[in-house]
Amino acid sequence: MTDHASRQQPDPTRQKTVLLVTAHPEPRSLTSALSAFAADHLRAAGHRVEVSDLYAMKWHASLDGDDFPDLPADERLEVLAAQGEATHAGRLSADIAAEQEKLRRADAVVLQFPLWWFSVPAILKGWIDRVFTFEFAHGPAVPPPYSEGALGGRRGLLAVTAGARESAFSDRGAHGALADLLFPVQHGVLWFTGIAALEPFAVYGSVDVSSERFAELAREYGRRLDGLFTDEPVPFRRLDGGDYGRDMRLLPGVEEPGTAGPGLHLAPRG
Asked: Terminus of the chain with fewer CB atoms < 10 Å: N or C?
């Protein structure tokens, strides 16, 4: 398959398509309720919504040789090479190919998940591992990472629920800043592939949410979804923007005084 997702830039004159990927095993959970709300809200706004409910789909989370039907059983699995060859040949397993087609159609991607052990659920990580294949989401044959990227022209929103209070995820909180915890997904998955990542929508204290509190959350979430195509994305630095050297390290002097860690990779706003 030679037509990469990056070659199909969204047309601003047509109806927008949103891919909603949700990951929770309980259909009566807060995550599931928020996913249903998001799908209804986006459709009411005139968008086309495709939903990948990973648990309902019984998504196979482990990347293995079954992803590549043409791979001989006795051949050593070189993951990047196998992904690239199968991607170009259009010979990935059917479940991966179907999710990649959804991404090709999407103008935006919403990942809806609970924060489990400071990361995404394993089933969602497995969706990323298997769907974002070499030569589809990254690789030398597609635009470079941390710029337009292979999936450039799309927007991404993380919608996350966390059981702890918001103060625990502050810069001095015991759990660490939420932006730092989500950096591997915001920066290392979305922005790496060219998807413009928006500020996450986070629900704290999610263990016991009353109907009144859910109504408040829905209003807040609705406002964020309304800005899916208009809000300013997180200003991550571009790899080709003059801030990084050939070794992909920030050049001396470009960091803002007092910043460290993931914050170094944010460009000044304005």
From this structure: C
